[in-house]
Specification:
Helix 1 (about 45-55) packs parallel to helix 3. About 40% of the residues lie in helices and about 30% in strands. The protein has helices at about 45-55, 70-85, 100-110, 125-145, and strands spanning about 1-10, 15-25, 30-40, 60-70, 115-120. It contains four helices and five strands; from the N terminus they run E-E-E-H-E-H-H-E-H. With about 150 residues, it is of the alpha/beta class.
Length: about 150
C-alpha cells in the first residue's frame, strides 16, 4: 500500500463569504498541489472540501497521514461521526448535523484508505500546512476574480 502525506487547509474571507481550499499530496513518487474555491461558503466547508479532495484524488487505496489545522475536521472524523450516524445525522442536542452532505462524502472518501488524522497548529511554520494555506488562499482569489473552482 502506497504511503501518502496529505496537507489540507481551508480559507474564507468572511464567514460566510468567498472561500478556498488547498491540498498538498506527497508520496515517494510525486508531489501534487491542488486548490479551488466557492463564491459563497464557510471556512468549515472549505476545510472539509480540502480533505475530501485529497482523499478522492488518490486513485488506489493508500496509507494516508492527513494533516489538518481544523479541529472541526479532526474531531468530526475521529470522535463525532459515530454518534451522528447512530442518531440519524443529528447532534447530541437532536439538531441536524451541519454539513452532513460533506461529512458523508468525506466518510466515503476516507473508507477507501487507511487514514491517520493529524492535527497541526495553523500558521505555525509547518511547511506542508503553510503551502496548503497558500493554495487555499489562491482558491479564494480564483473565485473573487470571477474564476471558477479548480479541481
Amino acid at each position: 500500500m502506497s504511503e501518502v502525506e496529505a496537507y489540507t487547509d481551508g480559507a474564507c474571507k468572511g464567514n460566510p463569504g468567498p472561500g478556498g481550499w488547498g491540498v498538498v499530496l506527497r508520496s515517494a513518487e510525486a508531489t501534487k498541489e491542488m486548490f479551488g474555491g466557492e463564491a459563497a461558503t464557510t471556512n468549515n466547508r472549505m476545510e472539509m472540501w480540502a480533505a475530501i479532495t485529497a482523499l478522492e484524488a488518490l486513485r488506489r487505496p493508500c496509507s494516508v497521514r492527513l494533516h489538518t489545522d481544523s479541529q472541526y475536521v479532526l474531531k468530526g472524523m475521529t470522535e463525532w461521526l459515530p454518534g451522528w450516524k447512530a442518531r440519524g445525522w443529528k447532534t447530541a442536542e437532536r439538531k441536524p448535523v451541519k454539513n452532513a452532505d460533506l461529512w458523508q462524502r468525506l466518510e466515503q472518501a476516507a473508507s477507501r484508505h487507511h487514514v491517520q488524522w493529524i492535527w497541526v497548529r495553523g500558521h505555525n511554520g509547518d511547511p506542508g500546512n503553510e503551502l496548503a494555506d497558500a493554495l487555499a488562499n489562491r482558491g479564494v482569489d480564483s473565485v473573487r476574480g470571477g474564476g471558477e473552482r479548480q479541481r
